[in-house]
Write a structure and sequence with these properties.
single chain, alpha+beta
Length: 248
């Protein structure tokens, strides 16, 4: 019997205008991205968010992101042509955007997904997909071959998270979780499915928390509601009033 993660029911971000993080169910991010943003090398772009705690860019040599102090405004800067990912986190929820950077005066070149879509159709019998101005993809993920074919397709510009409707067989979700366990364990964390949701728990550093969320996204397909129970321990700042050994 399959279970249906709410891949298109609860998109985490509304396009460009605002991020309604406080109003939506907390999805666990996975391929594909929530939003694709086009940038130009050497230029900046601002986005006003309703809530954000921190952001992390996968490859800052392509683009950078900064939350402006005292506001929920996000500053994106294109550095050089290419593609990278941006992870955004607030109030126990996270999402991933694709940042596509084009050369000065030229938009980013779109990625071709024709062959990957054809391969996904073969691997996932019954897959239904529409392209153009209104894009949708519906599929039943019954085996690892189908899952990996879809993961390859959804790493491209072909679809956004809100355009998908995926149904998973429970053993495949458990198998997907098994691939995540070693990395999560290395960060002092664990993940488990409770009903149709995913619970992430344990104690780790801010960097370990970020790495765990990146791993959830990179190794997973589709989404399930996420309950983030992680305790993040921040390093204790040194006591400025304590004399250092060098001063003794």
């Amino acid at each position: 019997m399959g279970i249906r993660p709410p891949v298109s029911r609860f998109p985490l971000f509304v396009p460009l205008a605002a991020l309604l993080l406080s109003l939506l169910a907390p999805p666990a991010a996975a391929w594909p991205v929530d939003l694709s943003v086009s940038l130009e090398a050497g230029k900046e772009r601002f986005h006003k968010l309703s809530a954000v705690e921190w952001v992390d860019v996968e490859d800052p040599s392509i683009a950078t992101a900064e939350v402006l102090a005292g506001s929920n405004e996000l500053l994106l800067t294109g550095v050089k042509p290419g593609r990278t990912l941006l992870l955004l986190y607030a109030e126990g929820k996270f999402a991933v955007w694709r940042l596509a950077v084009g050369a000065p005066g030229r938009p980013p070149e779109p990625e071709s997904s024709t062959e990957l879509l054809a391969a996904a159709r073969k691997a996932c019998p019954g897959l239904k997909a529409t392209e153009g101005s209104v894009r949708t993809l519906t599929a039943e993920v019954k085996n690892a071959r189908c899952r990996e074919a879809l993961r390859a397709l959804l790493k491209t510009d072909a679809y956004l998270a809100r355009e998908l409707e995926l149904t998973f067989e429970l053993p495949l979700l458990q198998e997907q979780l098994t691939t995540l366990s070693p990395t999560l364990k290395g960060q002092g964390l664990s993940a488990s499915y409770r009903g149709a949701g995913l619970v992430l728990e344990g104690t780790t550093t801010p960097e370990g928390h970020r790495q765990a969320l990146w791993e959830l996204f990179r190794q997973s397909l589709g989404r399930v509601p996420l309950e983030d129970r992680v305790t993040v321990e921040r390093p204790t700042p040194p006591d400025a009033g304590t004399p250092s050994d060098a001063g003794r």
